[in-house]
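Input sequence (185 aa), recorded before submission:
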Amino acid sequence: MSNTVDRRIIGDTQHAVSAICYLNGQPYDWAGKTASTVLEADDGTAVTEAGITTAHPTQTVTLDSTNNWIKCNRHGMQLGDQVRFTTSGSLSGTGLDITLDYIVVETTPFWFRVALTPNTVGITIAGAGSGAHTVTIVGSIQYAYDPTEVQALKRIWFKSTSGGKDTHFPAAKQGATVDIQALGN
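Predicted structure, token format:
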């Protein structure tokens, strides 16, 4: 069973650690599972987890049918990411469907386009729908540090628990080495 963690963005106490977890080459679906974070100091001792772990964090999006883009400030998406939409209202008439996963095919820091298959033209955004819309990167997980953890933290990994079984990302359970960088506010 191969599982990996992709993309780690490490910052000071103002910034969270974000990763996309993969199991057998596919983005890991955290739905229905308990997500937690394991932290270690450089000498291997546990660091008490005081921050907040969020599986499949969501971001608010705006659908722009005039320019055919989806707006999401500083979304952090990359080409090929698999995304899923949700809404408090309806996506009817937008060209999007909450029952489908999409692939990011074009991106800027504030905008992105999606398609049903990679390397194709983005779908047409036909309308704005109703209600508030959100997007999540499938497999994504985020850990927001507590300031007390930052000085001792040297390794981090994520753990999924379902039916009494644990799955670790990365699988080796020694964690991913992190360097804390002051990124500003």
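Checked by second reader. The chain has two domains: 3-54+140-177, 59-137.
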